[in-house]
Each structure stands twice: as C-alpha cells, then as structure tokens.
Amino acid sequence: MSDVFQPAPKLETGIAGLDQITFGGLPRGRTTLVSGTTGTGKTLLATEFLARGIQRHDEPGVFITFEERPEDIRRNAASLGLDIAAWEAAGMWAFVDASDAGPESEEIVGGYDFGGLMARVGHAVTGICAKRLSFDSLGAVFSRFADAGVVRSELKRVVGGLRDLEVTSLLTAERTEEYGAISRFSIEEFVADNVVLLRNVLEQERRRRTVEILKLRGAPHRAGEWLFAIDARQGLVVLPLSTIGAGTPASSERVTTGIPELDEMCGGGFYKDAVAFVSGPTGVGKTLLATHFVAAGVAAGERCVLFSFEESREQLVRNASSWGLDLEAMEATGSLMLRCESPELASLEHHFLSVEQAIEDYRPMRLAVDNLSALERVATVRGIRDVVIGLGSYVKQHEVTTLFTATSGFVGGSSVTEAHLSVLTDSILLLRYAEVAGEMRRSVTVVKMRGSRHDHAIREFTIDDHGMHIGDPLRGASGVLFPSELKGR
Amino acid sequence: MAETQDSYSFRIFVTGESLRSQRAAANLRSLCAAALGDGFEIEVVDVLERPELAESERIIATPTVLRLSPPPSRRVVGDLSDFDLAAAALGLVQPEAPANLGGPS
After folding, report:
1. What are the residues facing A97 on neighbouring strands?
2. If I label A288, which of A8, A34, A345, B27 is the partner at 20 to 30 A Cα–Cα?
3. What ipTM describes this predicted complex?
4. Which residue segments constitute the domains of chain A, with CATH numbers given?
C-alpha cells in the first residue's frame, strides 16, 4: 500500500478534452471506474477509449461486453465513423462477448467462480498484446448472477487480474441518481483508485451532459463538472477543450478594428490575440461593427470567419449592402467564411464545436461571433459562460483576433456573466442609445482595453450607407452607460 | 428411461485443477451414473488450456456444464453440490417422477 499516494504515470486517452481535465490521461496499468445513470454515454466512452488508443497511439484494445452485443457496438461505432470490424481483422481490437448467453437458460447450482471470464480475458489480451481494456458494465454482471456477495468477490479478482495483465482499464457502472451514491452495488469499493462520473442533467429545460473526475489516484486533476458533447466528427468531446492550454502568449502587435476612429479610441486598435466584446441594445449597430471588423481583415488579405447566430444569410448580406459592405464579394475573394446558424438547430456544445471546427478548417486570423445572447434561447447562463470562456481561450491560443457581440445586460450592467467574462476579455466596447435634447443618438465607449491606454470619452456615432462613423464626444447626455432601467437592479 | 441411453453428452468447463473443478466433475459423473447408468459421455474442458473454446461457448463462470445432447441444450453453473437441483437443472429426472422437489429454492 506504500505506493497509494504516488501518482501513477498516465496513459493519454486520446479523447478530446479528457486528457486536459485529467492532466494527461488515466493512470497507466490501472483501472478507472466510469459511473453514470442510463443514457449518459458510458458505453460510448468505453468504445472511444479503445478507438482513440488504436487511432492515435497504436495501442490494441479488448472490449468486454456484458450488456450490448458486439454487433450493436460495431453498428453504433460505425455511425461515428469508427470501423471496429476492420480493427478486429487487423488484430487491434478483440471482443469478449459476455452479453446475455443466448436462448438456453442458465441455472445455478452450487459454488462457482469467474474462471471462465478470466481465462477469456487473459486470452484476448495476450492474443493481441492489448494495452487497453474496456469492461461494460460491472453492474450488468450483478443482474446475471444473483448472489451479490459472490459477484463482488469474483469481480474483485477479475479487476486484480486486469492489473496483472498490465492493461489500462476503463470499467463502467450504473448509478441510480445523478447526485447520490457513486454506483449501484458499491462497485467503487473495489476499484476505488480512480472514479469518473458522467451525468445527463435536465436543467432549466436544457439537457446538459457533464463529466466529472471524482478522484484519480491522488493525482491532480481539474475539479468540477465539464460539459461534453457527442459530435459526429470528433466523437465524444469534453468542453471547454482548451481552458487548460499553455500560457496564453501576449501579443503587442495591433490590428485594426475596422474603423479608424475606433482604433484611435483603443490606443491603436485591438491586440492581435485579443478577445473583444461589443455590448449594446437591439438595433444599435453591433452587427455593423462586427461586419466592419471582418471587412477590414478581408481588405488586408486576412482570412476571416463571421458566425451569425442571429440573422439568416440573406438578412446579413442585405443589411451589410445597405452599409456599403458587400459580403458576397468578400466571400468570392476566398478570404471570408460566412456561417449563419440558427441557435435552435443544435445544442450549445455543438455550436461551440462548429465554431472551433471552422477555426480548425479555415485557419482565420479574425473571428466575429454575432450574437452570443441568441444562444440564451438554447442554453443556460452557466453553459454559455463555460463555452465563452472555453472558446475565448481557444482563439487566444490560435492567435485569432476575436470579436463577440452580445445584447446589453449580457456584459454590461449587473449581469451574472459579467464577472466571469470580463476576466477573459481584453476589450469591452459599449454601444448605447442616448437621448440628447429630445433626439435619439448613438454612442460608443471603450470601457476596457487591457494593457493599453484608451479614450474614456463617450463618443457619438452615426450610421449611413457607408457604414459607421464615429464623431465627437457626446456632451449633455447622461445615463448612457448605465441606463436608468438598469440602475435600480 | 424412454430415450436412447447412449445419446447423453455433456461438456463441463473447469478452471485448472482446483478443488471446486474436481468436485464439480465428480458430482456430474455420479449424477449421470445414477440416472443413466453407462449411457453418457462427459468432456472436461480446462478454460486455462482452451480459452478459445470458452470464448466460443461464452463461458463466464466455472464450473459450467453444457448438456450437448439430447436436446434441449442446457447450461448449469456451479459445482452441482445439490444433487436434486442439479439433476433437475440438467434434465436428468423424469417430469412424472414424484421426486422430492421440496429442496431449497
């Protein structure tokens, strides 16, 4: 027992995000229990653990299935582009099929052990020199063999046998509730070194899938629940992918905001690796600012991505043309990727992945996302916060100058998200309506510009068929930044 | 016995030379001898020596007895230490025989 508190060397799972929250993977040569209620993705995780081992690390794997039949697992994996049959033929994957034993009934008379299972597992592991093993699920064994005491002691022996075989194993187990006992039958008591919990929680009518590392053999890991998604291209992805990346490089290089006067207000433009937020009420000009931002990039020959969660492609193109900005012509140069997605068509996690994949595929230098508040229709505030933080750190690592827009109250004022988002953002611009001498005017203010001096004035701006024009400080207006309807909060 | 006596065939999966394995094989032999006289065959398979056969028959527990013939096929797990239950599970008692089925259930 002397080595219990010695963190074991890790084995990279190859599952996107999981290696980051575990600081490098699962303890090598050990067993990790993955517990969750039904439908949380345990079998998928068990499948991917082997699949990524084969694809990314050339490590063969054995899958012990007590629940689904091998043909079902093959078929489900195929829908994610994983060809298990081909791996089986290549000696990289082997099933130990312990799913329900066919038509004839099985009766129990007298004492028994799991010698048959152990012999098969040993045979499968040595047969393909497996480095990884998935066992799905321990709970199903209890429903096959009635005597829980015998099953417990026999499974304990099987788990001990896995350690002797020197495979890194992932064992699944069932829970009956999301926030209660770790597993039915207290399985964690004999595979207790490492425990991962999967949850599928309905929160404010939104379903959230999360993964939590409960313990990892005394080794450090990221605490808390992490969102994960099941993506058709990447499979299981734990979000945010990149909060834990290398230290973010601080660039001193400036890029234009798209509007010369705004560059001046910011002390020379945004930093190249900056994340900027533009907050303002509906119709004030957020989309316009975002369009200027990408148009300036395209004009300089930089690749840009404009993501819209608010307007259709037609609306976006038409509005831009009324400001003298031709998005379709920009697309034709090959420097602009225009993506319009309806928030309701996918979950928050999938939207996040689709932005990331656009960055991955297109490698832009600029990214504008308009408008984060639209995502509130499909996600909780906490979910958006997680995703924005994750995305913000992702774009920083890739040095993509990024501009997010949000409807007022999201960043400004006393909103719940503000404290979290302002830590991440480098620049915050407020666009506001102001009432001056009985007239409605528009104003722009730079309220934050990390690492730089900036103009503190509240400046007026106008919009015409050549876009946005920033003028002089707006005098005589008050309550612009904190409109009276927000003051009372 | 209505059936042809020599048609009974069993395969018993055991693990190595363990006491439980030996006991199970011995119990099966005496059960068969009592019910069938000489008309039976028993094949003892050690899963450690023939894991591929354990795999194709999907054996999890040892000992496991398969009644290969006559049909219907049967699987019985355990060392068969309760003779009455074992005989019933393996189909070695005639349904009309008023055997004492009042054992532990």
Report:
1. A65
2. A345
3. 0.85
4. 10-238 (3.40.50.300), 254-487 (3.40.50.300)
Could you list the pLDDT tens digit for every one of the 489 residues in chain A? 444 455 568 999 998 788 888 888 999 999 999 999 888 889 999 999 999 999 999 999 999 999 899 999 999 999 889 999 999 999 999 999 998 756 566 889 999 999 999 999 999 999 999 999 999 989 889 888 888 889 999 999 999 999 899 999 999 999 888 777 888 877 777 776 789 999 988 766 667 788 888 888 777 777 778 888 888 777 888 876 545 444 455 678 899 999 999 999 998 999 888 889 898 888 899 999 999 999 999 999 999 999 999 899 999 999 999 999 999 999 999 999 999 999 888 888 888 888 888 998 899 999 999 988 888 888 777 777 777 777 887 788 788 999 999 887 544 444 444 545 666 678 889 898 888 878 888 999 998 887 778 888 889 999 999 999 999 888 776 666 655 444 433
Residues of B in contact with A112 (CB under 8 A): 20, 61-64, 77-79
Could you give the CA distance from residue A452 to residue B22 in angstroms, rounded to a whole number?
Answer: 83
- Distances, alpha carbon B82 to alpha carbons A78, B36, B65, B85, in Å: 47, 18, 14, 6
> Is the CB of A110 less than 8 angstroms away from the CB of B80?
yes
First vs last C-alpha separation in chain B: 27
Q: Which two tokens stand for residue A481?
A: 């930044």
Distance from CA of A65 to the nearest CA of B (A): 11
Roughly how many angstroms between the first and final C-alpha of chain A, as a whole number?
57
pTM of the predicted protein model: 0.71
Give Cβ neighbours of residue A8 (< 8 Å, ≥ 6 apart): A27, A28, A29, A30, A217, A219
User: Considering only CB atoms, which chain A residues are within 8 Å of B54?
Assistant: 116, 119-120, 123
Give CA–CA dist A255/A275, Å, rounded. 12
Name every residue in A having a CB less than 8 A away from some CB of B. 96-98, 101-102, 104-120, 122-124, 144-145
CA A205 to chain B, closest CA, distance in angstroms equals 43
Q: Which residue of B has its CA nearest to A145?
A: B61
Compute the CA torsion angle A44, A46, A47, A49 (nearest 10 deg): 120
Site from A112, A138, A157 to mutate, B interface, most B CB atoms within 10 angstroms: A112
Residue linked to tokens 């084969």: A54
Per the structure block, which two tokens stand in for A326? 């031709």
